Amino acid sequence: QVHVEESGGGLxxxxxxxxLSCLVSGFTLDYFENVIGWFRQAPGKDRxxxxxxxxxxxxxxxxYVSSVKGRFTISRDSAANTVYLQMNSLxxxxxxxxxxxxxxxxxxxxxxxxxxxxxxxxxxxxxxxxS
Length: 131
Description:
Number of strands: 11
Strand content: over 45%
Radius of gyration: 14 Å
Structural class: mainly beta
Largest sheet: 7 strands, mixed
């Protein structure tokens, strides 16, 4: 069975940094085409696509929602079968539950896919940024 598990959330002051991890099990990222997405959901708001990274024959790209460009970086460690989201210069408006999601099929990050494009989801990790 394929699973993803997030970790690395926590409480940080504005301007601080966190690195979220998305550990994938039951599916080898290096062997199969895939897209990994990071989403977040704040109380009372819809789930928002934050970033994605694709590994397909036709597309190897990353993308970010405009509000995090220049502050967040997504990366993949094939040996660890893990995708990271490095978050710098955090703001109170970044406060949310962050979810990792996997689409175990060829895809693109030319635009961040919507939640319905991902079939495997983690439980989420809370990120709280204090002002």
